[in-house]
């Protein structure tokens, strides 16, 4: 079955843009970074007051407020738009194996990032001159179990409107006895209170459910799905990061790209995964240049179908959904970045805190748009959910344009490998079911049916069957059959001519 693929080559007669114009966003970002560094060194010589520093940083504050305001529509648009395409009634097996692949790769990516950031420990409290005041309000004696319970409470809020601007948190409050009582022992009670900040986990779970329901409704939910698709716009931003942090993210992406993903594909296909990845090279280069999974989608289609021979029935389902949902590189990046900022703030890395960051980064990556630097917005989701100051994201600005392209290439290759994984698993299950049904049919046949089939086979092989015995063809019968066959063959040749 032939498929039409969009060629990334320019159309004949069209003028090719100058490389600087094609990468205008990248050029302007680099220029802005160097201008900002130059102004900072220049202003530092005059030892400006805190008020002057606040005035200089005021445009950045407005920019951060705009990014925060985009969190809710971004989650709603991306999750509902992506998950509403999972039509389980028409593509049950493909959807199930695709969801399994997405879940496995995201969990492994987040785990890789957390292990590396704990091993390398790129964050140092000395990097920050002042700790954010937000951390002072969080008591240190809250147990990991309470943190996990708060995570589950926020995942299933009782008021979806309140979840847009508040989240639930457990706090231990000491209640001292009255002054006229001889006992001076204070009683500690766990109090559940709402704090300012969007309940991102609750919003994510709500929009996941909404997207799945819309996927089941099909055409009836198409107008609402079109609305969310229209809201899923391009978001571009940049970030500055320290050298050790960049190294941590880079190593994590390389481990996931060249070890984890090939291992998953090898388990499914039992073939050389690196040969399959070589067929995705052009799509990876396109992703490095555009920093957008959606922009690389036409080239990814061509590489997967033509270079690796995957059937279009799998690519047409897995690739579009994967461009919105399968964000392995983004999940790894957000897990490392959140723990990096936590280390800078001197936050203790308890098992409950690590689990919260890992789970939040996995879910938040589902809300990342397949556009350049959309991971910065979802990074704010993770920081808000774990109680870290969102303003610290400004400390990891300067090289996000580079990491954004690397993690986009990781996402694109992950989508391509996902097609091979889903095809291998579905075809394997189909073969098992086919062979199993044939065996059942053989068992269900009666002895009379088997005898008739045996008699027909003997008649085909040796001529006729008389009294249950095979009678050999005579010489004249064989010659006549050979003559008939030659005549038929000659007739076919004349028709072809």
Key structural traits:
mainly alpha; two-stranded antiparallel ribbon; Proton glutamate symport protein; symporter activity; Na-dicarboxylate_symporter; Na:dicarbo_symporter_sf; symport; transmembrane helix
Would you write up a description of this structure?
The protein has 497 residues and is mainly α. The protein has two domains: 57-430, Orthogonal Bundle (Proton glutamate symport protein), CATH 1.10.3860.10; 458-496. It is 65% helix and 5% strand. It has helices at 19-22, 24-44, 50-56, 58-69, 71-83, 92-120, 144-155, 200-217, 222-231, 243-269, 273-278, 281-290, 297-307, 312-325, 328-344, 351-366, 375-385, 400-444, 447-462, 475-496, and strands spanning 166-175, 187-196, 464-466, 469-471. Strand 3 and strand 4 (469-471) form a beta hairpin. The longest helix has 45 residues, at 400-444. It is globular, with a radius of gyration of 31 Å.
Question: Brief overview, please?
Answer:
The protein is built from 20 helices and 4 strands.
What is the percentage of strand-forming residues? 5-15%
CATH class of the largest domain: Mainly Alpha
**Uncertain segments of ≥5 residues (pLDDT<50)?**
1-14, 130-140, 232-241, 442-447, 488-497
CATH architecture identity of the largest domain: Orthogonal Bundle
* Class inferred from helices and paired strands: mainly alpha
The quaternary state of the protein chains shown equals single chain
- Strand adjacency order, main sheet: 1-2
CATH topology of the largest domain: Proton glutamate symport protein
Number of strands: 4
Q: How many structural domains in the coordinates?
A: 2
Mean pLDDT across all amino acids: 67
Radius of gyration: 31 Å
Strand-and-helix sequence, N→C?
Answer: HHHHHHHEEHHHHHHHHHHHHEEH
Apparent shape? globular
Summed up, the helix count is 20
CATH superfamily of the largest domain: Sodium:dicarboxylate symporter
Distance between the termini: 28 Å
Biggest sheet layout: 2 strands, antiparallel
The helix content is: 55-70%
């Amino acid at each position: 079955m032939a498929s039409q693929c969009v060629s990334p080559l320019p159309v004949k007669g069209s003028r090719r843009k100058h490389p600087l114009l094609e990468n205008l966003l990248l050029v302007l970002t680099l220029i802005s970074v160097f201008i900002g560094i130059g102004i900072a060194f220049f202003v530092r010589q005059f030892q400006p007051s805190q008020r002057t520093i606040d005035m200089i940083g005021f445009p950045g504050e407005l920019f951060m407020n705009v990014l925060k305001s985009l969190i809710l529509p971004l989650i709603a648009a991306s999750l509902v738009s992506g998950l509403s395409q999972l039509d389980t009634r028409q593509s049950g097996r493909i959807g199930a194996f695709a969801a399994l692949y997405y879940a496995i790769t995201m969990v492994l990516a987040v785990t890789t990032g957390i292990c590396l950031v704990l091993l390398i420990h790129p964050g140092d409290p000395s990097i920050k001159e002042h700790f954010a005041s937000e951390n002072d309000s969080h008591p240190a004696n809250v147990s990991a179990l309470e943190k996990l319970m708060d995570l589950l409470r926020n995942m299933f809020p009782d008021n979806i409107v309140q979840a847009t601007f508040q989240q639930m948190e457990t706090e231990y409050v000491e209640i001292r006895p009255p002054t006229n009582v001889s006992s001076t022992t204070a009683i500690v009670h766990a109090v559940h209170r709402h704090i300012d900040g969007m309940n991102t986990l609750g919003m994510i779970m709500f929009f996941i459910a909404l997207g799945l329901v819309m996927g089941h409704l099909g055409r009836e939910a198409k107008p609402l799905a079109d609305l969310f698709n229209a809201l899923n716009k391009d978001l571009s931003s940049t970030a500055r990061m320290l050298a050790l942090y960049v190294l941590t993210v880079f190593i994590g992406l390389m481990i996931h790209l060249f070890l984890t993903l090939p291992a998953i594909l090898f388990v499914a296909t039992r073939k050389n995964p690196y040969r399959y990845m070589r067929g995705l090279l052009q799509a990876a280069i396109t992703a490095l240049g555009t920093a957008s999974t959606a922009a690389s989608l036409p080239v990814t289609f061509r590489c997967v179908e033509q270079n690796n021979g995957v059937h279009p029935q799998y690519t047409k389902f897995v690739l579009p959904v994967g461009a919105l949902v399968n964000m392995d590189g983004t999940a790894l990046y957000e897990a490392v970045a959140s723990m990096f900022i936590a280390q800078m703030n001197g936050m203790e890395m308890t098992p409950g805190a690590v689990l919260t960051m890992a789970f939040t980064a996995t879910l938040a990556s589902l809300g990342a748009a397949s556009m350049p630097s959309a991971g910065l917005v979802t990074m704010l989701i993770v920081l808000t959910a774990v109680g870290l100051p969102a303003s610290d994201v400004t400390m990891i600005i300067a090289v996000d344009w580079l990491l954004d392209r690397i993690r986009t290439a990781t996402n694109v290759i992950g989508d391509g490998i996902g097609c091979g994984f889903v095809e291998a698993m579905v075809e394997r299950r189909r073969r098992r079911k086919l062979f199993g049904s044939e065996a059942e049919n053989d068992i269900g046949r009666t002895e009379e049916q088997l005898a008739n089939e045996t008699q027909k086979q003997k008649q085909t092989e040796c001529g006729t069957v008389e009294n249950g015995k095979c009678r050999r063809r005579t010489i004249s019968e064989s010659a006549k059959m050979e003559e008939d066959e030659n005549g038929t063959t000659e007739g076919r040749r004349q028709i072809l001519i």
